[in-house]
């Protein structure tokens, strides 16, 4: 009865936990790492072919994206997840495989120009994705399921994404009984479309995320419809496009929910008939899955619209593009428009083409509506870089960069605390995972010192004996070695800070002369201090 931490430990992506109990080898999530990874992850303690079960909290790639690789390396067990997650994984894992194969093909074409560079194989193929999808076992929320003698599980709505769940796991072995709860990604409260997180009352051990464990989304929630309306009007008045890098599953549908309200109520003065493009085949398919799961997953507000015969995420002027030709045509139309495209962090997909066509145009707006991991193009644009490289071409960043602050599928610090306080009695121990290094540490200290929990933030490789609550092996952090000649992380941070300063200066154009003079004096003073 042992738990080993594999991925998303003092990091945000690549979630994976290994459970060995009742003679079974079980994984909870098997996600892909995204952005910059600071620490090395240990390999699985057993061969992939020995894994009996996978329990999946939700469909996001950082929790599910390596499942086809598991299959490619011999896994033939069962994967348990909610009904809606099963629907989403059937499209998302194929999409991941398509991207892997495309990227390998592109790199190999590029390598042909240089002698001595061997061909690159994709991490996994479409056949691997199809194979692992056939191993999926859909499960209803709140149903008790017996995996095998000694192990039972139950999925509970955690309000992060359509079909997302926390997972309760009951273990009974050698006369010892223990209950684990894996939080998955805990949802933000009062999100459009989906329900709020549901709490769990009992657990011996809790494995919980901490993505926003050091910050609050804000005391006063932003009126997203009003703020989005302002951004649309300002941009359309300039004659520009609003380009929204958006996660194809979840955030895209939330944006459609807001845009339906804005369009049906004519809130953008002077531009009542603006077109909205969803330019992502994955997002189009995911929107269909949202329709399919209305009655199981939608919240009361969305259901009220459904009862009136109103589709909450569709409206006149919505255009869904599938083919590459349809996608290319969007940027040859001068009509001011909204373009929603994946990926949400601008790392792949059609959004990069839309950025290439719109970033250099000062009349346009790039609107970020979700988390941007360190090292991604989205994060760099948020931090104020003045130029980026896309498809081998340097593009100046002239467009307005905007954010819908606080719009997140993740609970903030107060939301996380509210969820963990839902247990009737304090668990024997809370393991804090799925957060940046400093955030994991800070949230663990908060749980211990301010709220009286026994909490621990494991590094990859840490192994826990669940029978007696002992940490058999406390892994130390192993930092990923930097390649020779690369710029240091600290200096890169300094450069990024300088680029952000330039962006802040530009955004202050039009301020009072007094304020701009004060700002200039502060910058000069700082330069005098550090100028060598």
Write down how many β-strands occur, each being a DSSP E stretch of 2 or more residues: 23
Question: For this structure, what is the CATH class of the largest domain?
Answer: Alpha Beta
Q: What would you say the CATH architecture of the largest domain is?
A: 4-Layer Sandwich
Distance between the termini: 59 Å
> CATH superfamily name of the largest domain?
Ribonuclease Z/Hydroxyacylglutathione hydrolase-like
Q: Nearest-angstrom radius of gyration? A: 24 Å
Strand content: 15-25%
- The geometry reads as globular
What's the CATH topology name of the largest domain? Answer: Metallo-beta-lactamase, Chain A
User: In this structure, how is the largest beta sheet organized?
Assistant: 8 strands, mixed
Class based on secondary structure composition and strand pairing: alpha/beta
Helix content: 25-40%
- Largest sheet, order of strands side by side? 6-5-4-3-2-1-22-23
Number of alpha- plus pi-helical segments: 16
Multimeric status of the protein:
single chain
Low confidence ranges: 483-490
Tell me the count of domains. Answer: 3
Output mean pLDDT: 90
């Amino acid at each position: 009865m042992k738990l080993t931490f594999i991925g998303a430990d003092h990091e945000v992506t690549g979630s994976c936990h290994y459970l060995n109990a009742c003679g079974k080898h079980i994984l909870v999530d098997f996600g892909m790492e995204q952005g910059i990874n600071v620490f090395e992850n240990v390999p699985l303690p057993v061969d992939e072919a020995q894994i009996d079960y996978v329990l999946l909290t939700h469909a996001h790639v950082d929790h599910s994206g390596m499942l086809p690789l598991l299959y490619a390396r011999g896994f033939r067990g069962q994967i348990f997840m909610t009904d809606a997650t099963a629907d989403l994984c059937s499209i998302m894992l194929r999409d991941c495989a398509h991207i892997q194969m495309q990227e390998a093909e592109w790199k190999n074409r590029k390598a042909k120009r240089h002698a001595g560079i061997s061909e690159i194989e994709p991490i996994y193929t479409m056949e691997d994705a199809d194979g692992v999808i056939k191993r999926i076992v859909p499960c209803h929320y709140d149903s008790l399921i017996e995996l095998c003698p000694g192990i039972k599980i139950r999925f509970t709505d955690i309000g992060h994404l359509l079909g997302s769940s926390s997972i309760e796991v009951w273990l009974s072995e050698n006369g010892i009984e223990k209950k684990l709860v894996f939080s998955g990604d805990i949802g933000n409260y009062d999100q459009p479309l989906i329900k709020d997180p549901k709490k769990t009352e009992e657990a011996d051990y809790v494995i919980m995320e901490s993505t926003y464990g050091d910050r609050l989304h804000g005391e006063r929630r932003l009126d997203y419809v009003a703020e989005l309306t302002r951004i649309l009007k300002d941009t359309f008045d300039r004659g520009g496009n609003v380009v929204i890098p958006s996660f194809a599953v979840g955030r895209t549908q939330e944006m459609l929910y807001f845009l339906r309200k804005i369009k049906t109520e004519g809130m953008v003065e002077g531009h009542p008939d603006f077109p909205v493009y969803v330019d992502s085949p994955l997002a189009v398919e995911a929107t269909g899955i949202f329709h399919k799961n209305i009655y199981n997953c939608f919240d009361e507000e969305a259901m009220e619209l459904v009862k009136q015969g109103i589709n909450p995420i569709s409206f006149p002027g919505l255009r869904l593009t599938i083919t590459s030709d349809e996608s290319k045509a969007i940027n040859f139309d001068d009509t001011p428009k909204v373009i929603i495209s994946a990926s949400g962090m601008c790392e792949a997909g059609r959004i990069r083409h839309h950025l290439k066509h719109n970033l250099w145009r000062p009349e346009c707006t790039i609107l970020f509506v979700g988390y941007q991991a360190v090292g991604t193009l989205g994060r760099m644009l948020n931090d104020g870089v003045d130029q980026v490289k896309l498809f081998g071409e340097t593009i100046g960043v002239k467009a307005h960069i905007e954010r819908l602050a606080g719009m997140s599928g993740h609970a903030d610090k107060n939301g996380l605390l509210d969820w963990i306080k839902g247990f009737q009695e304090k668990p024997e121990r809370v393991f804090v995972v799925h957060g940046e290094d400093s955030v994991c540490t800070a949230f663990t200290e908060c749980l211990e010192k301010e709220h009286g929990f026994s909490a621990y933030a494991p590094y990859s490789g840490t192994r826990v004996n669940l029978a007696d609550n002992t940490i058999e092996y406390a892994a130390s952090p192993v930092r990923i070695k930097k390649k020779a000649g690369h710029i240091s992380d600290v200096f890169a941070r300094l450069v990024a800070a300088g680029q952000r300063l330039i962006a802040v200066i530009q955004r202050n154009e039009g301020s009072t002369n007094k304020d701009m003079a004060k700002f200039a004096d502060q910058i000069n003073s700082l330069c005098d201090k550090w100028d060598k």
